[in-house]
Amino acid sequence: MDLFQDKNAGSLQVNDSTVRYADEQPLATRMRPQSLEEFAGQEHLVGEGKMLQRMIESGVIGSLIFYGPPSSGKTTLAHVISKEIKASFQIINAVLDGIKELRSVVEKAEKLRKLNGRKTILFVDEIHRWNKAQQDALLPHLESGIITLVGATTENPFYSLVNPLLSRCQLFELFPLTVDDVRNMLVRALNNEEKGLGDKSIRVDKEALNHLADYAGGDVRNALNALEVAVLSSKPDENDQIHITKEIAQESIQRRNVRYDRTGDEHYHYASAFIKSLRGSDADAALYWMNAMLEGGDDPNFIFRRMLIFASEDVGMAEPNAITIVNSCQEAFIKTGMPEGMFFLSHACIYLSICPKSNSSLGIFSASKEVKEKGVGAVPAYLKDKTANKLSARFLDIENASKNYKYPHSYDRHWVDQQYLPNELKGKKFYEPGAEGREGLLIKRLNEIRKKEN
């Protein structure tokens, strides 16, 4: 159940019913923004002259999808919109609720519209959790205008939502709140006498405020909860003033909040940044993004799997031993565990970063495409199985084609000019050698042999 303050009554609003403020309400709940002026962050959407701000001012709001990380303000912004346009605000949680609850909301919305023409905004939290049938059930009600949908999702809507629903909604992406956004909300809570801590004499050191804002990781709720803990757990001095030092702030929020969903978009964004840093030979950035994943709870073995792939895909023949070294690091990690296992993660990460790079192993996909699109050409007769050629020669009374095969080991430097591809693919190149590292040396040697023979 989500609680919101009613500006006019000084009470809380639960959908269309009200309850009085309770002393035990957390500071974060009391300080929930009730208007655009109080809303923190997302200036690209609600800043002066921006589209969503103009839509709210005009009172013409269509169905919306808010896409962004947790704690970026999706729920709060939806409620602010309903307050600004004086609409009824109904909430459905897609994890707990389904079509039955949707029907109930629609019935209430129809009655409300007939009674006084008031609009109903339906906020569906985690809308990506609904299956296709449940998402489709929204469509006729959006078409009729009985409800205006505001859906919230932490996952890419182009993957998680059905196209008919997307086509009826405007998509807005929300970004993580900045440290300044969080700091501003903390200051507002300290100064607000009605809902915040402004009725108390509190002095917060600048370093303490910065620590709370920084370690909250963009989560205003986390920062406000930590501030409240710091205030409530501190005794006033002889002047009846509560002094919050950096040490107290550190005790109130001891671990930096890393907003990271191992199954969401951030997981793939971090992994992508990690791999691209390795590919760019930037060991510092690779170590940073690897630790970001670890801090967020990613399985170290997932990181090792990505590095094993990288060892062949991006280092490849430039340093053929890379895959062996990374594999050895993973085996050592499994035997040792954490925290010493960090050495092996670091070893593999730094090694891959500074290795010469080659993506020539991608040649397999060029060959695969050729085979899939055009089929397999005929094997040149002299490359066929020797025993089969011998039998064919005997029964068909023809010359044994295997006699035309040139055995490379019988020639100088174990190489001889010979065609191995089907006739129709003569001269076709799938493998494009790189010039770095071991591959550069190996190809140089092979080219020298070829020139000498020719």
Which features would summarize this protein structure in a list?
Rossmann fold, 5-stranded parallel sheet
Give structural notes:
By secondary structure, this protein is α/β, with parallel strands linked by helices. It has 4 domains: 141 residues, Rossmann fold; 74 residues, Orthogonal Bundle (Helicase, Ruva Protein, domain 3); 90 residues, Zinc Finger, Delta Prime, domain 3, CATH 1.20.272; 76 residues, Orthogonal Bundle (post-AAA+ oligomerization domain-like), CATH 1.10.3710. The protein contains 21 helices and 10 strands. The strands form 3 sheets. A 5-stranded parallel beta sheet has the order 5-6-7-4-8, with helices on both faces. The protein has a 3-stranded antiparallel beta sheet with strand order 1-2-3, with no helix packed on it. Strand 1 and strand 2 form a beta hairpin. Helix 14 packs across helix 16 and helix 16 packs parallel to helix 18. The radius of gyration is 32 Å and the shape is elongated. The N terminus is likely disordered.
